[in-house]
């Protein structure tokens, strides 16, 4: 990592954390395919920031001006699960609501751990999962996950999130191959919030 890498950035009244560019999927609609960042911030990292550097960046920010801190950025935050837990705990003791945006592959990545419960115990309040499709076949075509049964395991993790007492949300990108209403029905089944995101890339 070099000193000009963007670790934290702000938008919509929130503070966002960009702690990795690694991901467990290669979605065809990912912003990384056609842009270096969002909201005017370059989110491509020269290297992953160390935990002390992330805490330092947060400690130098005026957290009181933000509604929540969100793990998102240009990668899958849960590839750094232990750091996510540590950072969430640091923020929670300072009274900051914390949200995780994730592709939802935690059950496959950490088969011996109850990731949802660990997140809840650390102080995580909201988990937003990229549902991205109404069925497994469409999911594979759009997201190119590294794991088998990724769609099914993502839905199992969603159930874990609710059972751990966190607020669950699903998001999908508005693409022709995605049945938005079926996705909405899935969200209702899981008692999750639901948001449709626009696609801003090349057609």
Q: Can you walk through the features of this model?
A:
- By secondary structure, the chain is α/β, with parallel strands linked by helices.
- The protein has one domain (8-197): TIM Barrel (Alpha-Beta Barrel).
- Helix content is 32%, strand content 18%.
- It is built from 7 helices and 9 strands; from the N terminus they run ββββαβαβααβααβαβ.
- The protein has helices spanning 51-59, 81-92, 106-109, 115-122, 136-143, 150-163, 180-189, and strands at 8-11, 14-17, 37-38, 41-42, 69-71, 98-102, 126-130, 167-173, 193-197.
- Strands 1-2-5-6-7-8-9 form a 7-stranded mixed beta sheet. The chain has a two-stranded antiparallel sheet with strand order 3-4.
- A hairpin with a 2-residue loop joins strand 1 and strand 2.
- The longest helix has 14 residues, at 150-163.
């Amino acid at each position: 990592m070099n000193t000009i890498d963007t670790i934290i950035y702000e938008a919509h009244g929130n503070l966002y954390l960009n702690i990795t560019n690694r991901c467990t999927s290669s979605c065809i609609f990912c912003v990384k395919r056609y842009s270096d960042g969002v909201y005017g911030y370059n989110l491509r990292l020269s290297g992953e920031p160390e935990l002390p550097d992330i805490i330092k960046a947060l400690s130098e920010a005026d957290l009181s001006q933000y509604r929540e801190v969100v793990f998102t950025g240009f990668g899958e935050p849960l590839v750094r699960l232990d750091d996510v837990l540590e950072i969430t705990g640091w923020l929670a003791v300072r009274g900051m609501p914390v949200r995780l945006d994730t592709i939802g592959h935690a059950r496959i990545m950490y088969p011996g751990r109850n990731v949802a419960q660990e997140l809840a115990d650390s102080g995580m309040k909201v988990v937003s999962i990229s549902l991205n499709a109404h069925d497994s076949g469409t999911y594979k075509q759009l997201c190119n996950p590294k794991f088998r049964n990724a769609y099914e395991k993502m839905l199992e993790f969603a159930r874990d999130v609710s059972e751990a007492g966190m607020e669950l949300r699903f998001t999908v990108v508005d693409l022709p191959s995605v049945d938005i209403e079926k996705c909405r029905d899935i969200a209702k089944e899981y008692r999750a919030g639901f948001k449709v995101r626009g696609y801003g890339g090349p057609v």
